[in-house]
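Q: Structure tokens for this one, please.
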Amino acid sequence: MSQKKVSFENDYNTGCHPRLLEALEKTNALFTTGYGHDELCEEARNLIRKACLAPEAMVQFVMGGTQANIIACVAGLKPWQGVLSAKTGHINVHETGAIEAAGHKILITPSNDGIIDPDAIDQLCRAHYEDPSVEHTVQPGMIYVSLTSEMGTIFSLDTLKAFRRAANNWNLYLYVDGARLASALTSSVATITLPDLAKYTDMFTIGGTKCGALFGEAIVVTNSDLKNTFRYIIKQRGAMLAKGRLLGVQFCELFRDDLYFEIGRHENSMALMLADHFKERGYHLYMPPVSNQIFVIFDEEDEKIFKERAIFERWAVLSDQTRVCRFVTSYATTPEMVSACFSGT
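A: Here is the predicted structure, written as tokens:
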């Protein structure tokens, strides 16, 4: 169906990057074994391990981000444990209670700009263990952070190390949701690399859905204690794709010739172009433009004007009744699309 307005609704609103589609077509007639045991998935795993400088890492593929987050939490948490998350964390606001439905409470932890304050982890855990009724309350078991955050912000390598120290201090697993990892790693303010994530986390994901894939997330498990039962959990949670080779093909292509990072850089450059256009016209940004999510403050009339040209989401209404609206760029965003958003202004 043709679309008259340019779309900045999200970063998964088109099919897939042409190179991935071509790779899927080329391998379509191959006969392979199922459930991710095929040679295409193994090649993708090896490419990811190489990029992470983590030859011993387990790499598993699932269809979507919510699946990945549920599996990570179930793998890392005992039935009486919960996961620490910012109030704005994806698992808390955009997964319909999926983690709670899996039996684990989300422990809201103070945060700044969508990123947990590492000191707050110590405070929360200390309060738990100093509580005289400690065994009557949910035990902290895992730290959940995302890169980028739900607010499009990015934490530094120093903050990642602080998360690791807190995890070690309180016997917690550290899990990073990398649904938009390509944007985060290629941001102009990025100080974290894939090898850093492999070194300092117990698990993290490499998002494909929001980086030019039809679907798919790679879960990278570096903690050996989590590996032996991981595929059992994937199967039990309905996330083991029979035609697993479809995930392998796409991640092979994303990690061949650094396409993954090329897409991230393109997303960010288009977002920065978008942000510059808004700023040139006097609009204020709610958050700094450091990733492929741009948050713009509109009054009611401005929101109506831009809705005539573009598709985007209203993120929040502030106390003065101005609107925070989110614009997201993808592999498919072009400079012409950005310009079309401002035609007549």
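A few notes: Residues 148 and 180 are 6 Å apart (CA to CA). The chain is about 40% helix and 20% strand.
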